[in-house]
Each structure stands twice: as structure tokens, then as C-alpha cells.
Prior knowledge:
The chain is α/β, with parallel strands linked by helices and 279 residues long. It contains ten helices and eight strands. The protein has helices at 35-47, 60-72, 92-102, 124-141, 153-163, 178-186, 203-209, 241-252, 256-271, 273-277, and strands spanning 20-25, 50-56, 76-80, 107-116, 145-150, 169-171, 190-193, 217-219. The two termini are 34 Å apart.
Amino acid sequence: MSGERKGERPPLPEPLPAPAVDSHTHLDACGCVTAEDVAAAMDRANSAGVARAITVADDLAAARWAAEAATWDERVFAAVAIHPTRTSTFTDADRAELEKLAAQPKVVAIGETGLDYYWDYSPHDAQAEAFRWHIDLAKRVGKPLMIHDRDAHEDILRVLGEEGAPETVVFHCFSGDADFARRCLDAGYVLSFAGAVTFRNAKALREAALLVPAEQLLVETDAPFLTPHPFRGRPNEPYCVAYTLRDLAELRGDDLAELAAATTATAERVFRFQEVVAP
């Protein structure tokens, strides 16, 4: 969800040995307003080896901004949806506008949508109704579904089963344990890990990350939140995905260049960037 962290950004890391993708960020919440702001953020990302980013909406205003911002910079793509905590007032007019935004070429996913049982901002039935609608939208426009799942694992899987999941489902900021990861992987879903996987007290999450094959693995920042270790609590930005990748490679015993290339290949396949930028 949108919101800006206080304090100084982490230092720019050493460039990655292969290009990476930040598969989920909120450039507006990072303080970007203009095309120049977006370019500056992506220049910082590029300096760390992060070549592309998907800026993600959590309300209708953010969806409008994300879809437009993606047209300002060839390195930026967008995802649009209404965040589950904002679904208590989800109107037909909202749905109609989201459908138009979802059809835009540089909007590469429907998200973030799902269920959030941590915050008490929207009734569970309203969240579920909106989630079902977003599932249908993803299937109609033929784009991946980007899921927000907070304290709602079982209901997320139940609704996906009842509605019939889209061809591609991404669990943004995966937060489950190894058992839940296995169930998601067996269903063919893609798991995206944010900075929380680097937290040294996140034992269950780190165990889950060990199980994920590269072809079902993405990395993200969820910036400006979840800044990776050792900068937890400071403002996050797409360049910080380099810190998460390094930590994941060490955790998994993977070669860093190979893991960066593999997660980028997964992002290319899932979000079909080349189809968007090709002449």
C-alpha cells in the first residue's frame, strides 16, 4: 500500500553481474511524481544492475498514475487493481475505468489484488467479491494476476480454486512457510520474494525460498516498504532488489549471476516485456 518511509535511502550497491527485474514496486509511494522522478529512480536502479521495474497500483488514482508513468520510461511497466484493503467502496465506475487501464499495452499485470486479514479496513466479503472480479479481469485481458495475501492463505487458494485461476498467478511478497510454498508451486503459481526474505528472524520464509525452482521465482522490493537487511526500516527503492538477490543467492547456494539471469528470465516469461517493447 502507498506510503512513504522516513530517513535516508540505503547506499547504492555494487552492480549485479547480470540484469535483474524489480517485479513489484510503488514508484509513486517512493516519491515519484514526474517523468523526471521516474527516470532518476530507474537510473539509480540501472546503476545497481536492475534493468526494469513494475510499478503497482493500490487504488484507482495510483492505477491511473502507474499506467501513465509506464509510458514515460521504457524501463517501467505497470500493474493495476484495487488493493483488498480499499474494496469497501468499489463501484461499477471503478471497475469500468480499471478495465480500460488494464487493456493498455504497458500494463502487464492485474494487481495487486487478493485478501488482507491483517488490517480491518474492508469487510472480508467485500474483499472476496473484488478479488473474484479481478481474477475474471485477468482472464479476460490475458494478463497475469498479482496477488496480495496477508494472513489469508487458505481463503486465497480457495477463491482461486472456485473461480479458476488465470493462466499465470504471481504471489507478490510471498509470506508463507515451506508447506504453503509447496502447495502454491504444485499449482503452478509464481512466488515473488521481497526484502522480508532477508530478515534474519524470517526463518519460515527463508525455508520456503529454498524450495522455489528458478522458473517459478521472482524478486521484488515492494518499495518503499520492506527494505532488505541490513537496511530494514529505511526507504526502499528498486535498486535495493540487488541486495535481496545477493542474500537469496547466498541462502540458496546459487551463483549470483545465474540467479539474476534466471529470475529475469522468469519475469520476461511471466510479464512478456518483449511483446510490449518490440516495434
